[in-house]
Specification:
heterodimer, A: 276 residues, 13-stranded mixed sheet, four-stranded mixed sheet, 4 helices, elongated, B: 299 residues, alpha+beta, Alpha-Beta Plaits, two-stranded antiparallel sheet, 7 helices
């Protein structure tokens, strides 16, 4: 049996609820969980003032309601599973090291900032700065996976060092800005200036995109590693087409203002001759 | 004991503890994957002369490979962990990386691992890159047709080498037919390979020689031409040819299954007698009795 929390009073201002992790709730009764302290605006409050709590924490938590003003869900979690039946607020899974968070609706900005392990699944759209570094921080996503089935905003994977971000729809500007390494796969369109300042890593798109002048075209080929990634993502529910799996991709190297060891790959629209 | 008209000698195959691994090779076409697999498993019949034993385990359809391309799984065995690692680096580097369009993946989830891609990556001369997906590190080595993708580590596990049956037949033609039938029955068993050419070996050996510089020599006890002069011949009257099938497996069960199926197939194809090679039980860690195996119980 899982621990179920249903929002009965919508917070008027953002509610910082970093207690909502399987680790923090483990072993607590519903009554004890209701006493945990959260921050409502600039005031301390009890979790029970906002959530009706039932069940027993056994490593899985279900959150129900419009949680778009509830921040830091699953922040720092290391194990277990959280399912949000609805939208979630900013900083979902911030700094998490393991476990899984599934958000069935949309999320606010900063999904999984600086996480180093585990998986975040967003079935709707995500805001800006998915898997990005906090302002002033040297590195963003350092491991794990962020899977957004809808669209995402600006600076997806900003400063990421390791891990996988997959976006089922489009991204806005500066996708992979200042990337150190890792992989961003965007099934839709990239916004402006992808890969600006990237050192290493891969940004993949299924549509042509305008390159910064500091990126150089290398060749059009069929990267085998991408087949491994796309097969993996297909297994996780992304609708990978035969054209994407078997197609050729243009390889652009950059950013020349940095190490010039990053790459942007986008699906080439010209017919591919597949030797069978 | 008899299967049809074939006598099954009450003896045992003496098998050895080895270390094994599984390699998955993929390519643009099944033919190119097979070309790499055949190259990799060439000159890998016996650890005595080749430092490892290897063979093709199965053809893999696209839904069973990491990159959704056609593939071939290969098993490779050596006497110790270090040996498996060295042979993998040599053979993947020389036979798979060189073959157009291929990629090479670890096919054995195991606690013990050896670094392979992590060594081959240096061929990339600092242009190589790595990817880490779901805990699996892969190296992208730039080559002239694109990139060679290879797993950083390959799993290894204790294995069994040298399972065998000896097929004694009336003449070469009849014995070959029985051996071919036996090989067909054994091929495709998960976790088992037959490392010799066509799965069959005619130069069975004993672990000693009358020459001081040689540590293995022909097994005169099973040479029909020496039946009249060899002191302890095992060639019965009417036998003109003896062929051996050697089986290596990732576990004892795979070797036993192959031997059991192989004996039935050889008997149905007209073998006069089926025996097994051993050294008196003093060398190998496993004794696989033929009679218990056919009765459904292992020794």
């Amino acid at each position: 049996m899982s621990l179920d929390l249903t929002l009965h009073t919508a917070p008027l201002v953002p509610l910082e609820a970093d207690v909502l992790t399987p680790g923090r709730l483990s072993g607590l009764s519903a009554r004890e969980a209701a006493k945990l302290i959260v921050v409502h605006g600039n005031q301390a409050a009890e979790l029970g003032e906002f959530f009706r709590i039932s069940g027993v924490a056994n490593g899985e938590i279900h959150l129900t309601g419009d949680l778009s003003h509830v921040k830091l869900i699953g922040a720092g979690m290391a194990e277990g599973r959280i399912v949000v039946h609805g939208p979630a607020g900013m900083h979902v899974g911030a700094g998490m090291t393991g476990g899984e968070i599934v958000v069935e609706g949309n999320t606010g900005d900063w999904v999984g900032p600086e996480m180093s392990g585990g998986r975040i699944v967003v079935k709707g759209n995500a805001g800006h700065l998915v898997g990005s570094a906090s302002r002033g921080s040297p590195a963003g996503l350092q491991g794990g996976e962020i899977l957004v089935f809808g669209n995402a905003g600006n600076e997806v994977g900003g400063g990421m060092r390791r891990g996988l971000i997959a976006i089922g729809g489009d991204t806005s500007d500066f996708t992979g800005v200042n990337m150190l390494a890792g992989t961003v796969v965007v099934f839709g369109h990239l916004g402006a200036r992808p890969g600006a300042g990237m050192k290493r890593g891969s940004i993949v798109s299924m549509h042509p995109t305008e390159m910064l002048p500091t990126f150089s075209y290398a060749c059009t080929y069929r990267p085998v590693f991408l087949r491994v990634y796309l097969s993996y993502l297909q297994g996780l529910g992304f609708p990978v087409t035969e054209a994407q799996l078997n197609g050729s991709y243009q390889r652009w190297c950059g950013d020349a203002i940095e190490l010039n060891r990053g790459e942007i790959l986008y699906l080439d629209s010209s017919p591919t001759e597949v030797h069978r | 004991m008899y299967i049809h008209e074939t006598q099954i000698v009450d003896t045992f195959a003496e098998a050895f503890a080895m270390w094994g691994t599984r390699i998955v090779i993929t390519a643009e076409t099944a033919d190119w994957a097979m070309a790499a697999a055949q190259s990799m498993t060439g000159f890998a019949t016996s650890v005595i002369g080749c430092k490892c034993e290897a063979g093709i385990e199965a053809l893999l359809p696209t839904d069973q490979t990491p990159d959704a391309r056609p593939g071939v799984s290969v098993l490779l065995f050596s006497m110790n962990e270090e040996g498996v690692g060295k042979r993998l680096v040599e053979r993947i580097g020389q036979c798979v990386m060189t073959c157009p369009s291929t990629a090479c993946y670890n096919g054995l989830p195991a606690e013990k691992q050896v670094v392979v891609g992590g060594q081959l990556r240096y061929f990339g001369d600092k242009f190589q890159g790595s990817k880490l997906l779901a805990g699996r590190r892969m190296w992208r080595v730039p080559v002239m047709d694109g990139e060679f993708l290879v797993d950083d580590r390959f799993g290894i596990q204790p294995a069994v080498g040298g399972g065998n049956i000896l097929i004694l037949g009336r003449d070469q033609g009849a014995t070959l037919r029985a051996a071919e039938a036996s090989v067909r029955a054994m091929r495709g068993i998960p976790g088992a390979i037959l490392p010799f050419p066509g799965g069959v070996v005619r130069s069975g050996s004993k672990p000693k020689s009358r020459y001081k510089f040689l540590f293995a020599s022909t097994n005169e006890a099973y040479c029909p031409t020496l039946r009249a002069v060899a002191g302890e011949t095992q060639v019965i009257a009417g036998v003109g040819c003896v062929l051996e099938i050697v089986i290596d497996g990732l576990d004892l069960g795979a070797v036993e299954t192959a031997m059991r199926l192989g004996m039935h197939a050889a008997a149905q194809a007209g073998a006069l007698q089926i025996s097994a090679g051993n050294y008196g039980g003093g060398l190998g860690q496993y004794k696989i009795g033929l009679h218990p195996l056919l009765e459904g119980a292992a020794v």
